[in-house]
Amino acid sequence: MSPARRKGWLVVVAVVQAGLIAWLGFVLMRGDAQPAKVEPAPLPEPAPRAESIVTQEPAAAAPVVAPTPTPAPPDQPSVLPAPTQPAPVTHAVLMGRVAGKGTKQPRDAAVSLFVGSAGTPTVRTQVPADTGSYALPGLAPGSYRLQVNSTGFRDYSATFEIPAGVAEFRHDVILTPSWELRVQINQPDGTPVHEKFAELAKLDPLLWRTSLSAVALFEAPPPLLPPTDMNESDIGIGRWRGSRDAAFGQGTALPKRFAGYLELPNDEPLYVSAVLRTAVLATERVEAGQEELILTVPFERVLATLGTVRLQVIDAASRRPVAGARVGLSDAQSSGQGQPVDVQGKIEMRFARPGLLNLDIQVKDRVAPLLNVEVAPGATIDLGAIAVHVPIDFKATLVDAPAEVQVSLVALDQPAHPALKARGTSFGTARNGEFTARIAPGRYRLRGTPPFPSTAGGLAVMEFDTQNLTAVPLRVPMQATAKLKITPPANRRVQLAIRDAAGMPHLRRWLSWTTAFDLNLVPGDFTVEITPFGGTATSRLLRVPAAGAELDLRQ
Amino acid sequence: MRTLSVVVVLEFVALIALVLVWSVTSQAESMVLGAGPAPAGERAAALLQSAATRQESVAPATAPVRRFAASDVPGAASVVVHGRLLAADGGAAPTDANVSFRRAGLWRSATTTGEGYATAGLAAGRWNVQAQADGFATYRGEHELDTSEVQVVDLALTRAQRVKVFLRTSEGASLHAALAKVFALRGLHVVATTQAIARDLPAVESGSVGDLEAGRYRSAHERPGTKVGASDPDGELQLDRPAPVHATLLLRHLVLARQIVAPAQSELTFTLDAKEVLDRLTTVRLRVLDAVTGQPVSGAFAALESSQGGGARAKTDADGVAVSEQVPPGLSALQVNAKGYESLWTQVRVPAGGTLDLGDVTLHPPVSLRGRLLDGDGKPVSGALQWTPLDTMTFPRELVNRRNTSTDGDGEYTLSLGKRRYVITARSSDGRVGVAIAEGGAPQACDIRMVTPVEVFLVAKGDPLVAYVATVRNHEGVPIAAVRIEPRWREQVLRVPPGDYTLEVHDDGDRLVHAQKLSARAAAITLEVSR
């Protein structure tokens, strides 16, 4: 190309470029560059973020984490939206991961978050096993306690503070595997007892529910554990995972020779017993961290522990036998269709497991009183005649109920037979607090509270006699309550009973867990009775003001 | 000449700089404009807005999104999404919402509080979002997540039109009370749709077909401990779409009555007599025979149940005949049990009204099948097993999936079967699967190889009221996996061991609407189903 021609081209390029520069400069100065149509606005002030990553060591006290808010990262996106007014950060989202220490990973981790020192979680969530991630929304600044539970891992608890102005707060959790003690319960010839039960259950289905379990305690237990209406004794330390539990997807599957395993919270020497509900059949001491244990129980001894219950069902009005009844013995975690009575309304039920059993009597157009039978090991109990009644439709409304309320009705009339105990039943109300219950005549105590894990307060309490009821539904006011935070002892089992000044019971149960919990009570004075396992009861007075109170049984 | 060259170069540099500035500015603005529009076709008008747009038309942000370093704790990469739950009309916000994010084979439920919702375990890509709250229309939409670790998506729900539903006889009495005198019936349900339901819906094994696209029905009779008064409504319909919509009273899948709900209508009464319902119930007869001797089996129990349990139960007489009265129409699980025999489970179709004679059902003496679940290295794997007798697969249906057993810690299992041919499926807790075809009583152990499955996602398109059954068959034509796609769930997933199969899709009229070779390898497969 000749110099003249080259110069001509340079002039053309210079002019074109100048034109483009002028146009772009004009467009940018005006601020309406296509395709943008929105006025650019200043970036919002970033909210800080805080992180805490805590690993809980075995048996360690809950670590307290005071995270430091970190400044906004320098690489924040430059294209964040442009708010007309930067909004203040009022609530944070808590997020994190839950993983296991080592190769074992949690499959069913549940995260619970408690505000301050509350004993009732403000929010709970399940952690999907495939991601191990969780997120909890809408948390105001303040102190919190995070609790994580998962099968096969020790319970985790940590406290931390979410500072004001923090939008996102990270708290990762590494869970420590539990001490798993695998237990064989064998006959003297070495064959597993549960195989013998499985064999016999094919011949008699009544034995299907019968199985031995293992209970761990700090001390060697007496021959009889405290009564329970659960499927297995609930007084032990840790959790028993029977082979049957594993068959239903809970816990770890073990080779056939094992009856199951104990998932224990702390490495410390313990006494482990083979039990049939309340009856202790064999006990061995185990050392901390021990992996396996063999307990030997002759099968004849197991069979000798099962009881027999006889009764006759009669009609309350005519006092005649009821031939069409079905009667069953179940625990609080099971139910069944029962067995038919004979033409005289009589029935004999074999293989009754020791402990408290629900006596379920089903008769068309009749209702039976709410009863438990306390079966001593190997006992034969003749309960005599038990009357069924024309049912009473008990209608009531819990006034000012906070949405759904859980109601329990406990029979107050103590039956004549010493093995029979009055029991309760529970159900939910409608959202407006209304409910109808079909009950037998008699005296009852009604107690209504928001169901777990609701954080709402309120308590409805009333005793009534069905003979005083009218066609008008009973109106029971929900009273304002205070929270009594109860912290169970860590290294012993106690039974806790709480009664109000009028003698009405509000709690009576063995505390077999160590996590603090809240009890809703109408403010006032209460009597607290504490009975250590194998010890004598002590009582003390407790005042619960409107602001709430704490009962720390660790002291 | 040299000066001119320098000018051209400088101009060029300036031009490039200006173009870059223009480009960045344009990109920022187009993101603001383009993010998170309300999905097309959502007449419920719930608003789903990304962090980028919500400040324009919803409300000021609560928390700007920040990036931060990945966690030190091991785990899959995970996106957290959180946001506020708002009422679109600016009134009281929903307090008890259920929010979920879903896409092929994955479902993440959010945790909600009064201040909003949050969920973790998501990943970048397009997700179906659903939000339900009492008194609000169900929000269903799609949202694209990017790779940011924390993302904000506010959801504004529109208030639902609430319609009290009364079920009354021609004399004005309660239909439920009239039915309760003769039969404890469950399964009356009301569905809301945008189009009139012209025919009975596809039969289901559930107690009801569930809620369809235009609303949710909550029966007042389903709450234990609550007695519905004679003048009380039998339920409430909360509309997900603006009226008019079509409301249909169903007995399971059978249409009993239809109405149109008008805008602002607050009450709806279906009038029909108990006889019209009872006439739709069916008598089911069958005879139980010993498979070896051909003799009747007396004292056997035959139960016909929905997937929620309950149902009819009858005992065979001396001739081996069992007659179940008042069986609700639809798909029923048939269980036949007798002492000293196998426990037989299968599925039957119960027509509406009249008598269904299932003919002879043979029971074999129980025999065992033992085996182990093994991984690729021959090591034992713990898991759960389900088994289906192949001779009972007489129409397109799912495999028996309501009974299972588990292995022990050595991966060993024992099944109590009849002397039949079965398809046995196994699944381990880590998601591996295995399949075997075996005969009950086979002397040799039936070991099952557990492998990482290939996922086959099935998405139903077209008529939303058609149901499908998708069946995967092996090279012998034996079904190894099957799934139903019902009107309320238009997406399903099948998990099969890698291999070559045939996929068949039948509609609810048993018509083969699709068949293809299925080469299941490592990657997931997505297929659309329609007729």
Output the keywords.
heterodimer; A: 555 residues; mainly beta; 5-stranded antiparallel β-sheet; globular; B: 531 residues; 45% strand
Question: Low-confidence runs of chain A (pLDDT<50, min 5 residues)?
Answer: 30-46, 50-86
Give a short account of the largest sheet of chain B: 6 strands, mixed
Distance between the termini of chain B: 74 Å
Distance between the termini of chain A: 100 Å
Q: Biggest sheet of chain A, in brief? A: 5 strands, mixed
- Which regions of chain B have little confidence, pLDDT < 50, spanning 5+ residues? 24-70
SSE blueprint:
The complex is a heterodimer of chains A (555) and B (531).
Chain A: H1 3-30, E1 49-55, E2 64-65, E3 92-100, E4 110-115, E5 123-126, E6 133-139, E7 142-149, E8 156-162, E9 168-175, E10 179-186, H2 193-203, E11 213-217, E12 239-242, H3 243-247, E13 260-264, E14 270-276, E15 279-286, E16 292-296, H4 299-305, E17 307-315, E18 326-330, E19 339-340, E20 346-352, E21 355-362, E22 371-375, E23 380-388, E24 392-399, E25 406-411, E26 420-422, E27 424-428, E28 434-439, E29 443-449, E30 460-465, E31 474-477, E32 482-487, E33 494-500, E34 505-511, E35 517-521, E36 524-532, E37 538-544, E38 549-552
Parallel strand pairs in A: 1-9, 2-8, 3-9, 10-16, 17-23, 24-31, 32-38
Antiparallel strand pairs in A: 3-6, 4-5, 4-7, 7-8, 10-13, 11-14, 12-13, 14-15, 17-20, 18-19, 18-21, 21-22, 22-26, 24-28, 25-27, 25-29, 29-30, 32-35, 33-34, 33-36, 36-37
Chain B: H1 2-34, E1 47-50, H2 54-57, E2 79-83, E3 85-87, E4 98-103, E5 106-109, E6 111-113, E7 116-122, E8 125-132, E9 139-145, E10 150-157, E11 162-168, H3 175-180, E12 188-193, E13 215-219, E14 235-239, E15 245-251, E16 254-261, E17 267-271, H4 274-278, E18 282-290, E19 301-306, E20 309-315, E21 321-327, E22 330-337, E23 344-350, E24 355-363, E25 367-374, E26 383-389, E27 405-406, E28 412-417, E29 421-428, E30 433-439, E31 448-449, E32 454-460, E33 468-473, E34 479-485, E35 491-496, E36 499-507, E37 512-520, E38 525-529
Parallel strand pairs in B: 2-10, 3-10, 11-17, 18-24, 25-31, 32-38
Antiparallel strand pairs in B: 1-10, 2-7, 4-5, 4-8, 6-7, 8-9, 11-14, 12-15, 13-14, 15-16, 18-21, 19-20, 19-22, 22-23, 25-28, 26-27, 26-29, 29-30, 32-35, 33-34, 33-36, 36-37
